[in-house]
Amino acid sequence: MKVFSVRGITQSGKTTTIENIIKELKKRRYSVGSVKDIHFEEFAIDQEGTNTYRHRRAGSELVTARGHYETDILFPEKLNVEEILRFYNQDFVVLEGVEDTNAPKIITAHDVKEVEERIDGTVFAISGRIANTLQEYKGVPVINAMSDVEKLVDLIEEKVYEKLPEFSGECCCACGYSCRELGIKILKGEAKREDCILGEENIKLSINQQEISMVPFVQKILYNAVMGVVAELEGYHKGSNIQIKVGER
Amino acid sequence: MKVFSVRGITQSGKTTTIENIIKELKKRRYSVGSVKDIHFEEFAIDQEGTNTYRHRRAGSELVTARGHYETDILFPEKLNVEEILRFYNQDFVVLEGVEDTNAPKIITAHDVKEVEERIDGTVFAISGRIANTLQEYKGVPVINAMSDVEKLVDLIEEKVYEKLPEFSGECCCACGYSCRELGIKILKGEAKREDCILGEENIKLSINQQEISMVPFVQKILYNAVMGVVAELEGYHKGSNIQIKVGER
């Protein structure tokens, strides 16, 4: 699953850029999901007076509205983006206005000043209104998402890598970098996605609460034994977190 | 997690009954979640013209709207109730108008005719408008959820059992019954929740923090796959507690 974000202030062309990108990705036969951050203090998707609104007001802590053609799960809190992405398994996921991520980023902007406020090593393209006046800024291509969407999506295909684990800087660094640092290096062409050494053998074993170190060979055998069964079960998709407990109730 | 449903036609007092039950359960310090089925053909929680609406229209297959105080995950399909319940971990979950479940049931109705159309072995109480005129119907108590909510919630505490796996009739039947049949027997007092023998192998599997129910056959295969490797490792002895995690640190 490849994840990227589009950031920019209101009216800079953010949603239009995303619409065009999604349409083009779909045209190329990818599955696509999206997450939209809403920075409007009073945002509430449910309308006063609906039955689900009445459930929540009475004290229901998690409310689902299920219609004939949709199922809406309404969490009464701001989940972090990693929690949200656990529900996704599309080829590409676009994040709109999401801040708590190190995913590769497209900036939309009116002008250079807005770009300057947002640019960092995670940015691989610039779009939005500024694309009418500029073609490149500090080595980052500026692309019009209306007239040149193919070019922008070519760049997404080229640059956006399989989602990194996004461990906090202190937590893993098994490759020598934080996930953010490795991501920036991948975009620059100084590292590869495969340099993240947490691959499919990312498996941990504890016996009576003591973590057991396993050489890669044993890790691989245990991984294959577990996944040979679990991958066939409903509820599993690639990248799922799996936990198995034996001997405890 | 204990799950029950409230069924009845429009204006029979369904949502009011649920509101009162939720409030009383909360007063008793339980955590509560709810699922509402909307039988209105054109139901769509998202409004035309919102950015998330634009995402979906462009082709996004899973859209999340995240505000400061809520996160709304909008699946573009009718998930089945078992899939929905994987997101829940409250003490009690109330289902409103949900048909694809064998959970214990409260009927709300205007009159005996409506009760007659809906009553079966899964019904443990009757409420709604009919409670103004009747106290019992064919051995099932009729309780007013406005004036007698304590009595109704006492009955919920007494009758509603820890959710059964809800495997289809052909699938498990390891206890000798389908989940529906066992549920009816539990309500009648002819069986106990513990008669559901799933869990005997003492192996538990979670995928993305959601516990996955496995029929005994699958439990056994997973148990053997795991133990075939782990039992050979230093640190293991018979009866050890084992924990395996894949994809997390």
List the helices and strands and how they pair.
Two copies of one chain form a homodimer.
Chain A: E1 2-7, H1 14-27, E2 32-37, H2 51-58, E3 63-66, E4 71-75, H3 81-85, E5 92-96, E6 105-108, H4 112-118, E7 123-127, E8 136-137, E9 140-141, H5 149-159, H6 179-188, E10 203-207, E11 210-212, H7 216-230, E12 242-246
Helix pairs in contact in A: 1-5
Entry keywords:
homodimer, 249 residues, alpha/beta, Rossmann fold, five-stranded parallel β-sheet, 7 helices, 12 strands, 28% helix, 21% strand
How would you describe what is shown here?
The structure is a homodimer of 249-residue chains. Chain A has seven helices and twelve strands. Chain A has 249 residues and is of the alpha/beta class. Chain A folds into two domains: 2-159, 3-Layer(aba) Sandwich (Rossmann fold); 200-249, no CATH class. The first copy, chain A, has a five-stranded parallel beta sheet with strand order 2-5-1-6-7, sandwiched between helices. In chain A, a hairpin with a 2-residue loop joins strand 8 (136-137) and strand 9. Chain A starts with a strand and ends with a strand. The mean pLDDT of chain A is 90.
